[in-house]
Each structure stands twice: as C-alpha cells, then as structure tokens.
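Appendix C reproduces, verbatim, an entry submitted by the partner laboratory led by Prof. M.T., so that reviewers can inspect both the input and the predicted structure.
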Amino acid sequence: MKKVMLSVIAALAVTAAAPAFAADMPVKAKKAPVAVVSPWDIAFGTALTSDYVLRGVSQSNHKPAVQGYFEVRYNINDMWQLYAGVWGSSLWTGLANAEIDPNAGVRLTLGNFGLDVGYVYYGYPGGITPNFGNGSYGEVYAKPTYKFNDILTIGGIYETGFNNFNGKAVATGAAGWVGDARHSFYAANAVVTLPWQPAGITISINPEIGREIYSSGVTANYGSVSDTYWDVGLDFVYKAATLDLRYWGTNAKAAPIGGVANQCGAAAAGTNFCGNRFVATLKFDTTFSALK
C-alpha cells in the first residue's frame, strides 16, 4: 500500500513540476517577416536659378529660369540601375521659350567606382528663329566617377552626337547643310566635401573644366566655334535642399559684326550669351523611397 501511495505522490509531483520545466525550456522566436524593398523608385526635383548656364553659355539671356525633372529608376541589383526621365527649363536665346530633354540610360556601381551611360535628346518644342530650325538634337554620354574617400570624389563627362548637330538646320534660303555636323564635349570635375557639418549642413566645393568641340561643318553652317569653359561652385546641402553658388567662365566670344551668329549670339544684334558670371541656384531633390 505504501508503494502505491508513493507512486501516486511521485506522479503528482512530476505533473505539477511539468509547467515549470516547460517554462525553463528555450522557445524559438518567430522570425519577423523580411521587408520587401521594391526595385522601383522615382526621383524628382525642381530648381530656381538666376541664370541657366550650359557649358559657360547662358541659355536664358542672363535672366532667371525655372527648372524641374523626374526620373523613373529600376534597381536590377546593388550594381546595376536602369533609368529614364525628362528634364526641363525655361529659357530665352531667341530659339525657343523652353527646353525639354528626355533621357535614358544605365548606372553601374562597383565599389567606389561609378559609371553612367545613356542618351539625351535636347528638345526645343516650337522653337523657330528667323535663320534656323528648332535646333533639337540627340547625343550619347558617359560619366565615370571615383570616390577616394568621404572628402574627395572625381569624375568626368564625355558626350557626342551622331553627325546631326541641331538637326542640320541651315539659314533661311540656303541650299542646305554643307560638310559634317559633328559635335562633342568632355569635362573633368571634382567634389571636395568639407569634413564638418555645421547645423547639419553639408558643404562642398565643386570645380569643373570642359572643352566643347564643333566640326568645321558646324562652324561654317551654324557659326558655333570650339571653346573651353570652367566653373567652380560652393554647395550647401540640407536634407532635400541645395544652394549652389557658382562662378562660370568661357573663352568663347560673340560673333563679330558681319559674322555668322554663334553660341554666344551676334554682336550686331547686341547679344552676348557668353562671358564670366556668378550664378545662384536653389534646388530641391528627393525620391519616393525617401518620403516613406
């Protein structure tokens, strides 16, 4: 009888202790669901500038211009990104009242090395001048960069057309374009980021020097002459806002009286889109993913 009673007591003791043993046993935590990051994104921005300058030449006749863009991006992986978008600006050069530039390409990121290769179409919708057509044309470009460290990044640009500069537009009444129509430009630039951020503002210095090359056919038919330009900017970046203070210069000169108007305008018409100048630009840039 004693054995039976002892067996019952032992069984009850084991049963009572079972929950405590279970509480002490390690329990596997459920894995949190992995957040799915969409490969798609959209970048967009706007800018107000005191003078729209392109490679040392004013495109707004030294007047303020409003600009904006949007770009659809698809990230194949950490290395490759496809993109397509459009950039636009108000302008005044006697050619058109606006510039609309659709573009598309691919970006490669490999460690500290980056490469952007694509196509851009410089469009001037509705642009009509007394002497030339609307001047729209397309070019391919390559933009390599290399980041040495958090302070210094260097880069370059090479861009060229397809022997079809400005749609081979010719002066009114002319027999047609004579000769070649090649155009290209290349530049070297750098970004020097200062190692301190007062009030969360990133400050950088951005110098650039470039060379724009026009073939003899472009010079004879359109007046544009090869030139060298340079600029240096001081950027203040706070979150999505950038204030760019930049000084531009070029050795291109306006065509003399009696000469064919070139990229600087015509002295006879009292225009000169070239010359050294200071330009201030306020920009806002962000992406949909950054807004989430």
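The radius of gyration is 31 Å. Additional entries are available on request from the coordinating office.
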